[in-house]
Amino acid sequence: MGRRSHKQELHKKKVEISQTIYLPRSWDYYERFKQPYFYPFEFSQIEIKQSELGDIKINATLWDTAIVMSKFFELEIGRDGLKGKRIIELGSGVGLLGVVLSLLGADIIITEQKSMHGILEYNVKKNCKDLSKTKVQELWWGDNILDFKPPFDMIVGSDLIYEDHCIDLLLKSLMDLSSFHPKPKSKYSDIIDQLDENGNIPENLLENLKINNDNEEEEENDEEEEEEVEEEEKEEKEDLDEEDRDDLEEDNKKENIYDSNFQYNKEIKKKYKNKKIKEDDEELKGEDYLVSSSLLEPNPDTVIYLGYEHREMNAESIFMNKVNKYFHVETITTKHLNPGFSGVDIRILKMKKIKQQPPQEEKDKEENK
Ligand SMILES: C[S@@+](CC[C@H](N)C(=O)[O-])C[C@H]1O[C@@H](n2cnc3c(N)ncnc32)[C@H](O)[C@@H]1O
Are 136 and 116 in contact (CB under 8 A)? Predict the structure, then answer.
């Protein structure tokens, strides 16, 4: 009995692996939209409905990368690597990859723009077995991600690198989702963190608080003194005669002109400098936007799998020029996965966020060299 079931297992494995999936690869969107897509999965198939009402939208069809990535997770990562894992998918489109990961046992949040949720939810409900562990939610890249409650074991995305202006937004979301997020601190968080198990303030902390309190009182006294000086100056000014007052106003005017000129020159210099940097290096454009996300502490347990078709698009080179600055990247090729995939070059980037040095620490390091 045991032997037979082992044989059956082997046979099952052979059947699964020998299925050849040919990629649709049709750029005739009308043809592509008409039919649902059938993805062979284990002894059955997953049916993915495409565009609603036959409208042509880039996100309303299934892209080849999603099919190849689904096969990659099935064959190379497998159930053992996915069961119970907390995963988030970005830009799911019609949802094949999310559905496959859900069927392989993951606990997954499938995200997309709201306008796609109708068709996406339809495909999820039709194919997923455990809807308590498979959620569809809205996520615009670059938006606040705290509602998704990181940490995640995995972040996945297929065919998301195609629009130049979205690259920074995508990188920001990937960084935010693969980081630890400090709890928002209240004025008393530090004190609360140090209370003993009975909720009492330890002796040394009490002493510190007393010292700080004395300092605060001193500061308050200084402020009072400053206010008194200002009041005296005001009174003196009121006692001046007409002529003295005119002179004083003239001096003030000059000082203001000088100040605003100085301010103006500074602004111009800043603008000129920024413009020059942009001209010299287009890449720096969105950099400011990414800095705060890059400084968040990386979560070492989060792995990102991002699939794309290598077709030398501008967005691909922009992405590749930036990604190594923020992530450790390993490239996985996929042609071997299935005979039907041999005609395309779909690659999967396996990424982990890099720990960035805050600017001051970097500066100190430079100085110590
Ligand atoms: C080429 S489709 C890929 C869809 C799906 N992953 C697949 O491979 O079949 C790109 C997806 O990214 C989504 N997308 C593009 N820009 C986005 C943004 N800024 N925020 C959220 N989603 C976005 C689109 O709605 C679309 O579904």
Answer: no
Q: 115: Cβ below 6 Å to ligand 1?
A: no
Q: Which residue has the tokens 């897509």?
A: 37
Q: Read off the tokens for 337.
A: 């996965």
Q: Strand 107-112 to strand 154-158: parallel, antiparallel, or no bridges (unpaired)?
A: unpaired
- Mutational test site, ligand 1, from 113, 120, 121, max ligand atoms within 8 Å of CB: 113
Regarding the beta carbon of 169 and ligand 1, being less than 6 Å apart is answered yes
User: What is the reported pLDDT for 232?
Assistant: 74
| Residues with pLDDT less than 50, the chain | 1-3, 10-11, 14-15, 17, 53-54, 254-269, 271-285
DSSP 344: S
pTM above 0.85, yes or no: no
Domain limits, the chain = 12-181+288-353
- CATH architecture of structural domain 12-181+288-353: 3-Layer(aba) Sandwich (3.40)
pLDDT at position 251: 58
65 lines ligand 1 (CB under 6 A): yes
Nearest protein Cα to ligand 1, atom 26:
59
In sequence order, what DSSP letters do the residues of 166-219 get, joined into one string?
A: GHHHHHHHHHHHTB--PPPPPTTHHHHHT--TTSPPPHHHHHHHHHHHHHHHHH
How many Å lie between the centroid of ligand 1 and the Cα of residue 59?
Answer: 6
Q: Whats the size of the chain, residue-wise? A: 369
**Residue from 136, 159, 170, 172 to probe ligand 1 pocket by mutation (most atoms less than 8 Å from CB):** 159
The rounded Å distance from CA 135 to ligand 1 centre is 17
pLDDT at 364: 67
Tell whether ligand 1 has an atom less than 6 A from the beta carbon of residue 70. no
